[in-house]
Specification:
alpha+beta, 19% helix, eight-stranded antiparallel beta sheet, 12 strands, 3 helices, Immunoglobulin-like
């Protein structure tokens, strides 16, 4: 399935209207075929408090990938990383439910899943391709709750992240693209 692309001008207009002040850390990469990719740093959105019972944490990251050389259209991805140590269950974020401030829920399904084992930590990393409608929603409304579902394990993790984090990351990507 081809995802819709979002014109950078629409994204920039959205970012300027909402007046978000974010500390931006974006890496620019030149991919094959001279396509440009912009990637934000990972940001932690959740860590359990009962560390004596194992660690469970969630980080997110976004990128914007140029669709063709000299184009102003980009595709957007959201990456979700869930790290767990024993005895916590290693949840793979196959589905993400974002409850928005307009009281709607945005459901995102993972396109790619990768498991990484680091010492005593298991990290499940999932990629979510965002349509232009998805980007419009997550840049228009604050996030009230985030729920990660692993339908294979029948497990979930629900928490309240910083409500403007995805908007800030999207704004950082837009600023990086404008500055080229």
């Amino acid at each position: 399935m081809k995802i819709k692309v979002l014109s950078i001008m629409l994204l920039v207009a959205s970012a300027l209207i909402t007046k978000v002040n974010a500390q931006c850390a974006v890496t620019k990469s030149v991919l094959e075929n001279n396509l440009i990719s912009y990637t934000t740093d990972k940001e932690r959105v959740y860590r359990n408090e009962d560390l004596e019972n194992g660690v469970q944490m969630v980080q997110i990251q976004m990128d914007a990938n140029q669709k063709a050389p000299n184009e102003t259209q980009y595709s957007f991805n959201l990456y979700v990383f869930v790290g767990s140590s024993e005895p916590k269950m290693p949840i793979a974020p196959r589905v993400i439910l974002l409850t928005l401030s307009n009281r709607t829920t945005l459901t995102l399904k993972a396109n790619k899943i990768k498991t990484i084992h680091k010492e005593e930590l298991t990290v499940n990393a999932c990629t979510f391709e965002l349509s232009s409608d998805d980007v419009d929603k997550i840049t228009s409304y604050a996030i009230l709750n985030m729920e990660i579902l692993d339908n294979r394990l029948g497990a979930n993790l629900k928490f309240k992240p910083y409500d403007m984090l995805i908007l800030e990351q999207t704004t950082c990507l837009a600023k990086a693209i404008i500055q080229k």
